[in-house]
Amino acid sequence: MILSPEKLNNIGVVILAAGKGTRLNCVDKPKVMCEIGGKPIVSYIVKVLNEVGFSKKQIMLVVGFKGEQVKEYFGDSVSYALQSVQLGTAHAALTGIKELEKKIKHVLVLGGDDSAFYTKKTLLDFIDKHIKNNSKLSLLSADVSAPSSLGRVVRHNSGEVEIIEKEYLTEEQKKIKEISTGTFCFDRAWYESIYPKMPKLRKLGEYGLPTALAMARDQNKKYQIIKIKDNNEWFGINTDEELIEANNRLN
Fold first, then answer.
1. What's the predicted TM-score (pTM) here?
2. What confidence tens digit (pLDDT) does each residue in 102-149 have?
3. Where do the domains of the chain lie, and which CATH numbers do they carry?
């Protein structure tokens, strides 16, 4: 699949790359600069985005902790936005979105630490479905065999869907295997309009992207959850064990 130049030119990509990576003991570099296969984790998704056809102005890396290392690696091949204070994923996304060109109508938001294995086909399919459905928000979900440390996608009989963070799960909900990958497509104007009204996550005290889905649902706006076809394409890297596993997957 390819997107027409007209569609492609209206899309921006925000990659969240400001995290410290405390559990990975990244004291001297940002989490996304930890290496798999001898290259920074975040370099793999940037390569795929280049293959899709995105220009440097369309690829916005949100940097923070030791952000100069990210800039040194990528140089002027991408664009940058600085998240000087870490207030959560929703705030990081807004920080990047605000720096995109005004003509951008849709924004793909990705985590720089969990998107290394996404394929061009998966991203194109996700973006295409978001635009065709005329959604304010689209979320990519995946089925994970051991999702204990992750939020879940809870599908109710009414047809409503919600993302419940791991801190709030009931014992029954903990059995659910479908998780939010944290990869979203947004209608840019809508996202910018809801952010000022967004409440903080109670237990974390920060602004989280899952709240955007709850706001779309409460406003009766069009949203959709698209399940990834190959669950192996999403892989979160938060621990030394997961870093080793990511290296094994590459090999």
1. 0.94
2. 999 999 999 999 999 999 999 999 999 999 999 999 999 999 988 877
3. 9-250 (3.90.550.10)
